[in-house]
Design brief:
Elements (H helix, E strand, L loop, with lengths): L4 E5 L6 H12 L3 E3 H7 L6 H12 L5 H12 L8 E4 L5 H12 L7 E6 L2 H9 L1 E4 L4 E4 L26 H24 L3 E5 L4 H16 L2
Parallel strand pairs: 1-3, 1-4, 2-3, 4-7
Antiparallel strand pairs: 5-6
Helix pairs in contact: 1-8, 4-5
Keywords: Kinase, Nucleotide-binding, Transferase
Organism: Anaeramoeba flamelloides
GO molecular function: kinase activity
Length: 221
């Protein structure tokens, strides 16, 4: 039986996190965020921990070898074999091959890679206006989804923050890093007939429905 294994790729702020949360609930499968796996290691004193801190500070891309290590550790938790959403990975051929090899152990394969496409101007507006409730991870936006009380979480009333990496300088670096691997991975998944392109500028509910429809078609192949 085919199970749902999705890769979500796109520039920072394109909506991968929002869609991951919706897809996780819809398919009842885990959401694997490379960003979250990286941040869990940020206080680690190993050489990997030090490299990760540099990545977070400079908006650089973690090496394929280290991403493979983090993913490998995550698979050891044994809750991913019935399906999973891989947020912002694979972004190298090395990691794509590793993921394919791991899934083949259970006679599974990646269902599809969803590539989020968005106008850069809208991307900057989304990211630079983003606000976070650090305790829960709830996301607001100064323009598109403002809190009821300025800079306060709607549920707890606690203070909202802007992420340290949600600045124009860091965003420029992150977009540049994304563009380095975008075409390579797009071609990789296109050749494997696993690529789905989505207009991420559409309303979140429309994007969600388009993903669901595309995944349904992919499962029938």
């Amino acid at each position: 039986m085919k199970k749902v294994f999705l890769s979500l790729l796109g520039p920072p702020g394109c909506g991968k996190g929002t869609q991951s949360a919706l897809l996780k609930t819809y398919y009842n499968i885990p959401h694997v965020s490379i960003g979250s796996l990286i941040k869990k290691m940020k206080n680690d004193q190993s050489s990997l921990g030090k490299e990760i801190r540099t990545v977070l500070q400079n908006g650089k891309l973690l090496s394929g070898k280290n991403v493979n290590y983090l993913l490998g550790k995550r698979f050891q938790e044994n809750d991913l074999w019935n399906g999973a959403i891989f947020d912002a990975t694979p972004c190298t051929i090395e990691t794509a091959n590793m993921l394919s090899s791991v899934l083949q152990q259970k006679n599974q394969s990646l269902t599809c890679c969803v590539l989020f496409q968005i106008n850069p101007a809208l991307l900057y507006k989304r990211v630079l206006g983003r606000l976070i409730h650090p305790q829960s991870g709830r996301i607001y936006h100064r323009t598109f989804k403002p809190p009821k009380v300025q800079m306060r979480d709607d549920i707890t009333g606690e203070a909202l923050i802007q992420r340290k990496d949600d600045t124009k300088g860091i965003l420029n670096k992150r977009i540049a890093q994304y563009m380095k691997y975008k075409e390579i991975m797009e071609n990789y998944f296109q050749k494997k007939d696993q690529l789905i392109k989505i207009d991420a500028s559409l309303p979140p509910n429309v994007v969600f429905q388009k993903i669901i429809s595309s995944v349904s078609l992919a499962l029938k192949k």
